[in-house]
Amino acid sequence: MINKIAVLLVVLLFIIAALASDPDPVMDFCIAKSADNSFTCKNSSTATVEDFTYSGIKFAGNFKQTGFSSMAVNSNVFPGLNTLGMSFVRADFDVGGVNVPHFHPRATEVGFVLEGKIYSGFVDTKNKVFAKVLEKGEVMVFPRGLVHFQMNVGDGPATILGSFDSQNPGLMKIPNAVFGSDIKEELLEKAFGLSSKELSKLKKRFSPS
Predict the structure, then answer these.
(1) Which of 28, 74, 102, 183 lies 20 to 30 angstroms, CA to CA, from 207?
(2) Each residue of 5-56: pLDDT tens digit?
C-alpha cells in the first residue's frame, strides 16, 4: 500500500511539473500565418531567411517630444520569434528622459546599455530599491513582475536594449494604470492625499489620448 502511494505521489509531482512549465516545441519553428493568428503556422517549406531577421530597430525612435521612445520587437513584427518564448525592445532616451516605473507581469527583462549613462533599478516586494547608474556595455536584470525604471543621466542621448523571456511579456506603466484608468476619483484622492484639482491634472496627463 505504501509503495502504491509513493508511486502515485511521484506521478503527481511529474504532472505538476509538466503543467507548470511551458510546453516544448514540437516543430523547429512556427511562422504564424498572420499577426492576428499566431496559433496557425504556415507551411515550413515557404519560410525564408527574412522570417528570421529584423531590421526595424537599426535606428533610434523619435524621443524628442516626450524624451523617451520604445520599439517592441515581438512576433507581430518579427515572425521568426513566434512560439520561441522571447521578445525584445529598444528604448531611446533624450537627455533627462525617463522610462516611468512599470512592470512586466509575464517576463524577466535583461537590459543592456548600448549607449549613454542610465540610472536604472527596480523595487522588490519589501520596497527595497536596487538601483545604480549603468554605463555603456553594462547589463541589469529586472525580475518578473517587479516595478522598474530608467532615466538618462548622461550628457547625450542614451539607448537600452531589453530582452524578455516571454513572447508576450505585458506592460503596466504605473502612472497610466493608476491615473489613466477609471478608478474612482474619491479613492485616488484619499489614497494619495490629492485635492480634486491635483487629481484632475494627473488624470488629464496620463489618460489615454
Answers:
(1) 74
(2) 555 544 444 444 444 444 566 778 899 877 666 668 888 888 999 999 999 9
Q: 69 φ, ψ to 5°? A: -145, 140
DSSP for 55-107, please give it. -TTSS----TTTSEEEEEESTTT-GGGTTSS-EEEEEEE-TT-EEEEEE-TT-
Whose cell is 524621443? That residue is: 63
SS3 at position 137:
coil
Say how far apart CA 120 and CA 168 lie, in whole Å. 23
Amino acid at site 33: K
Instruction: Name the grid cell of 102.
Output: 512599470
CB-based contacts of 3, cutoff 8 Å, min separation 6: none
pTM: 0.82
